[in-house]
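user: At home tonight, take the chain set out below, taking as long as you need, and be ready to discuss the fold:
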Amino acid sequence: IIDSLRLGGKERRLVELLKDLETKKYIRCQLVVLSDDAFYNYVDMLDIKIHHLIRKCDKDPYIFIKLYKICKDFQPDIIHSWEAMCSIYVLPVAKLLGIKLINGMITSAPTKLKLFGKSWIRSKLTFPFSDLIISNSYAGLKSYNAPKHKSYCIHNGFDFSRTRNLEDQDIIRKSFKIDSAHVVGMVASFSPRKDYETYILSAIQILQKRNDLTFLAVGDGSTLEKYKGMVKPKFKKKIKLIGKQNNIESIVNIFDIGVLLTDQDIHGEGIANSILEYMALGKPVIATSGGGTSEIVIHDKTGYLIEPKNTEALSKKIEFLLNNKGKAKLLGKAGKERVIREFSIKKMRNRFIKKYIELSSLRPRLEL
């Protein structure tokens, strides 16, 4: 059960897992989506029954009744919730019907979880009654103080088939009117959680000294117009905020450096898909240290971790990598090897299925 299939990290993880579950003859699966939003609409082509339960309000009590009926008919061994509010909805259903509950609400790693905030309350309500709590980072489990005896980390997995059949780099460059020798890029939503201010300030700082690079910002959201206003007319050809794009891998492929900056006063990263994309395509990474990011990026091995909101540090690292192509290439190569070794889609899927088998009635049947 998930809130939506909008573009996002947890949504992508779920869809990648469903594609594999469909092939397992010993697993039957149904999906509940609490909206009709669907970026990943190809899930409709899978041989999996999908229930769209549209809420009339944020906390629609009729969802309990509908979920109860679905689970009563389907009789699953496990309910896997991918959101905090989904966990609230399915908790009474799981307990009433004797179904094991996997709580997958932890997808971030805040520096300090706000006491009596929504996430804190929902974790306190659901953790005691969850059979397993899954996070995509160890940092997330620690931030939420999840009970150790029922906690498990499954890192995001990257599907390298996404790097095949990329659009020609010259075509991508031409489409965004890029004629500079170098490209630095940041792929992230335009929301208060992402520190685009430091990124743009660093771009301006560097462009005042050199004009051989273009800074791309790929994403959409509530703060997009605000940050467009930060870019003065003389820099608009070199700092491009290009909004939401579908061909992310092809765009990342033209980057010399991939950047991800987080406002840690508001948000702590879990495992960011954009960093996996950079690394899978052999790009050196510069990212805000802390949270799950420190579980992906190995400082000075696959990229650089910098302190939050440090414009000077970001500028220095960008210029260093642009001026030291050999080092940049080594970091990118090591990053790609790390994703292949530690963050493969196969590894992610296998770890989920392992936990499903351990929790369900499948375990004794498979052992027989």
